[in-house]
Design a protein that fits this description.
homotetramer; 352 residues; alpha/beta; Rossmann fold; Dihydrodipicolinate Reductase, domain 2; 2 domains; 7-stranded mixed sheet; 6-stranded parallel sheet; 13 helices; 38% helix; 24% strand
């Protein structure tokens, strides 16, 4: 029943089917807008619904990108012309929406986390497996051009056995501390992406995590049990070790890179620049600035996600990240949160 | 009457009008296809005609991107719903097409060169000026993100007075030598872009050129009076000097960079990479490959060209490169070709 | 009594005294040879003795670089013309040699660790303090051009408050596993440098460490209780967090960099290249190789160490790293070793 | 009789003889000081004389670096313990000094140009050949680590046939214009190095040069018939083309790079940085500054020159650059100067 997407999905490689797939976007917030725009512009999808309990937000998106605005998901699920759903609703609604999609036989991509609890996430995985729908976790970073290249080359054996990994990720500007309860906090929200990448890149299973955190950016994060700065180590069953440097604010832009060190070499992505102009002047050489935020840095990967989704629905190709991948990353995140609270390494139970 | 576009048009800055502008693309070759696709996808243009004497090529494009295929330009010029034309036809047809557009009151972008002769090019400039239509030369490199940034910063005075410029441009793979009579040869085809950039970046007028050429890539270029390797120097009326390294084949991709050296500093663009992954292994660090060709390297700039064109037609904003800019670049190219033939520096007559 | 060297010693800034200081080098192994050569060539030092129980090794060095070879340190300590000693003997002899130097009133630089035990190290610190001799720990990386620049700029406040640090250090080729008991193992040998750098760069005290290790390079390291791959996190009393990626083998050379992330920006050193030549060819851009080993990478810093030592002895300037700095780094290393063994975070007792 | 040094002399490869070679340095100016210091510190040379008509300057150098100060070269030439001479005197004295060395059987390195006229330079070449002394032109750039690597890899065929070369060289600060008559001006002084490198890298002979110059840095250079900004093209008998961008002032440091483009790839040196620290902050990434001047950039190559000289004297190995190489570069420079004056391409007479 458990399936992981370990193969490399190279964005753009798969022939995108020309037949239009009716699609609904659940959630009209920041990420919902990204998806609504991309679905609207995509050659394989037809945007039929934008759904949000905050009906005004849904209406705004629908006016710009098409489709019918609704507050409730029922009409979309009942509509036979809708074959696909992007679940970009609030985290607390993910489980309900994923189960509903699976029940209604709709293919779906669910933004992480799959559910508010590990039990809920397991239920989503099981339900989708039982119904046989195409289902993916929204780990768009797997489809980033450079991360996909690092993965393909690593899994091809170019650097030998993977021994260590290092991930740095800091957003440009911190979110409001009061959104922490909603997002689950930095470890769950940001960490999940990198716990997934680490498992994917090693081809191994995470077995233990140790995490320390601090509130150095804004002490108010502590009021919500969250941290804004964290250092983590994860041990994998292959013996590989990974370190993670996370933060909520980098004054210079989206501070993100990955390094995969192996027995035969190392693959490293740079911090992505905006442009390629160097300025030489007295005492300094100034290069192009770093990409300002995740939005700009990863814009292409959200489009690639739709390519992969369409190919999976039409040609039966694998999705880029399965629901089980989402469950695994969520399990690591939960263990990491516990590690911070209890200040001890926490074994990761193999529930995926 | 003479007008140059010296201001900086920052791609994407201008608000793109939402009203749809009927557009015809003349020419269904490689560059015609680029324009047809971009017009079709653009929010401000509606692709009405794809026109090529080779009607089959026109039909293929029209089927994919929309519009009516035609072998003749007459119906498009007579169609009141067509307000804009992209002249991407063969060089020998440019003059006729530009004059026809001006006569019919259609705004147009004309690929360079404007005509097969300087006299013809002057006629195009005069005709467009007389009719008052919006008209631009297809110098898309002015709208490349990095070149536009270099220009904006240079013209803002960031590096003081411009003293020297260096341009390198070599395509990945050489064109067939027998296309030389058609394209006008490397100096006219490739050089025009950089003669235009040099004038734009210096804000000065070119007064003399010296050029040497050779056939080192393929001796057959000589059979057509063309060269595949060339080194040029151009002197400007400001005193600034420019060197140009041109070639028809770089085994590693599109080899292109610009350097602007000034009294207070220097601005340099790198050779653009595809991706941002470094591979460390025994005895070497291997970076991402260079962009494979002009197509990939400058894809965005062709879209930006449509943005600017739409803004010019709708809001009266300046075009990125006027017809007079095209005439000037063509005059430099003709002088450079003469310089190679006569092996002497050739003064550039100020006809623009 | 406790003193740390927190100020920045910029190599080469201090005026090097021209008066010659008589100097003995204890130990004629790899690092002893580095020091003997540098002392011999240095304008302020006169190499008087090279001392090693393996008298042949001492003789070889003395023949090449000067001075008298001896098996025993007594003659050098009794020689009034000897004012300075470089303790580069085997780790097990450090404590005895340091105490002897302090007792004889000789200034000394002691390679880390100061002693085989923390108690021994404390005795060295106390003894040197009591005798008032100039004494330094051989933390040469503090005098590396780039690390010194990062420290100076960080302590000047250029990046605001230090929030996170990341250190990667992997040697090119692993040492023989059977040297582990002698060197103390990777955490003590390699780690000490970086625990010192981290304390120096943060201006804060380390309070807790968590470390995981593995034998991925050579399983025989486990036979000696050592690891060849390790990931560590250290928490500082300022709240700053540091991650460390350590390894014993990087096929591409000395793999080392430091990153200091602060509230106002970040300072990063690159992996140091040998030369500055890029090779562009089909499908790849290949840059100069990484520095092959610590020997080449840090050669200059050992010379700078002598500059600083001479200035300290002659002008009373501070040393680059005090004995207390050495003690602190050793304390962190011991805690890290314990953390690996017990798989739990270990509090670092403040004994320095 | 004509001999060129085309082989690659890798600095440091040749075993440096330990026997001391008595050496005199002619000239106690800026470059004389560089040589006096290096000779004094070099393991194979013994500095016996520092000679300058300005006896005070000679005395100052001799006091610091050793040897006897003299105003006249006669005693040194008569001294049998002197086997080698570095001719770093004023350009107007080069010919006399080179002929005197050849006549006295002293090996010598002569700074370029060999003489004030091409006839004088030919006389130097002939005289040294007749006497059979080891003689070299002071083209230290051939011994720069990176330039030597580019040459070795190019001559090994790594990039196929050399088709184009580009050289940029601009000093940090301009010399006083009134030194132009003394130095011969920018084209002769700076250009000679790069005309030599170009011939070396192509393995071909220069046949024609075209040069344009301007006084953009300081109009007073024109008062002395000099230029401070110049663009040149040189054609080689292999068909290869080279462009040169020269200038007297780059506000950001020594602005120098070389590019060699071939049929199979390209080798490029970067602009050399001082250090390897990147600073990321709001809106910018600032890298280490460029090397401030030729002094710092090429310090190592002057030492390597002595290594090669010693090996040539002791083991009969080839010098890095023959006198004929110096003559050739001088011939190109003279033709380039004529080209600027007459504004036409000038054929380079094959006199070397």
């Amino acid at each position: 029943m458990t399936q992981h997407s370990r193969g490399i999905i190279t964005p753009g490689r798969s022939p995108v089917p020309r037949s239009m797939i009716g699609c609904a976007v659940f959630g009209a917030g920041v990420i919902g807008e990204v998806h609504a725009r991309n679905v609207s512009r995509h050659g394989s999808f037809d945007l039929r619904y934008v759904i949000d309990p905050a009906i005004d937000r849904a209406r705004t998106l629908a006016q710009t990108w098409g489709g019918t605005a609704a507050a409730d998901i029922a009409p979309a699920l009942a509509d036979d012309t809708v074959a696909a759903v992007i679940i970009a609703s609030s985290t607390s609604a993910h489980e309900e929406h994923a189960l509903a999609c699976a029940g209604a036989g709709k293919a779906f991509i669910c933004e992480k986390p799959l559910a508010g609890s590990l039990e809920g996430a397991r239920a989503c995985v099981a339900s989708a497996a039982a119904s046989g729908v195409v289902a993916a976790t929204g780990f768009n970073r797997r489809l980033d051009h450079d991360y996909a290249a690092v993965a393909a080359r690593t899994l091809d054996g170019e650097i030998g056995a993977v021994e260590m990994l290092h991930f740095a990720s800091r957003g440009h500007k911190p979110p409001a501390p009061e959104t922490a309860p909603h997002s689950g906090g930095m470890i769950r929200e940001k960490g999940a992406h990198f716990f997934d990448l680490a498992a994917w890149l090693t081809g191994a299973e995470p077995v233990e995590v140790y995490a320390v955190g601090a509130c150095l950016v804004d002490p108010r994060f502590a009021d919500y049990g969250d941290v804004d700065t964290a250092a983590l180590t994860v041990r994998f069953d292959s013996g590989a070790l990974a370190t993670f440097d996370f933060g909520r604010r980098a004054v210079f832009g989206q501070d993100e890179l990955i390094e995969v060190f192996g027995s035969q070499g190392m693959l490293v992505t740079g911090r992505h620049r905006r442009g390629n102009v160097a300025h030489f002047t007295g005492g300094a050489v100034t290069e192009a600035e770093v990409m300002p935020g995740w939005h700009e840095r990863f814009a292409d990967s959200y489009v690639a996600e739709l390519d992969v989704f369409a190919a999976a629905m039409t040609h039966g190709e694998p999705v880029h990240a399965s629901l089980a991948d989402g469950l695994r990353a969520q399990a690591v995140a939960e263990a990491a949160v516990r590690s911070i609270k209890q200040n001890r390494p926490v074994a990761i139970e193999r529930i995926w």
